[in-house]
Write a structure and sequence with these properties.
The chain has 135 residues and is mostly helical. It is built from 4 helices and 2 strands; from the N terminus they run αββααα. Helices cover 53% and strands 4% of the residues.
């Protein structure tokens, strides 16, 4: 709001302490105004309509917009986008091809060793780099 830089322990802090107080006051005033004008205010325990499937549900948290059935799907959509954005910034991409039939062998191997395919490939790359640098 004011442009000041600030440090915070919270992951989602958007306002410095001074602006946060102002913003909380504005939210409280808006809430009171809604109540005065008989505008419906979402409260925990009241019902709402799911934005994904259109079914009614009971509100369990202030930020809830979907029913329990759609929650996981809705959360995964948000995570996939942020994960893709992070990956694009933090990693390079390599496409690899394996012989027919090897894909299933590799999948089985990584499952048995409780690792991801990415961890398996990176392990192989690191071992190869280590071995080749000794030569």
């Amino acid at each position: 709001m004011c442009g000041k830089e600030f440090g915070s322990e919270a992951n989602r802090a958007s306002y410095c302490p001074d602006c946060r107080k102002i913003r909380q006051k504005e939210r409280a005033e808006a809430y009171v105004e809604k109540r005065k004008n008989n505008i419906e205010v979402r409260t925990i325990g009241s019902s709402d309509i799911c934005v994904e499937c259109g079914k009614p549900y009971i509100i369990n948290s202030a930020s809830q917009v979907v029913c329990e059935d759609c929650r996981k799907k809705h959360t995964n959509k948000r995570k996939q986008k942020s994960n893709a954005d992070y990956s694009a910034k933090a990693y390079d991409t390599i496409t690899t091809y394996v012989k027919k039939g090897q894909k299933e062998v590799i999948k089985e191997f990584v499952q048995q060793h409780e690792m991801s395919l990415n961890e398996f490939i990176n392990l192989g790359i690191n071992l190869a780099i280590e071995k080749l640098s000794k030569e």
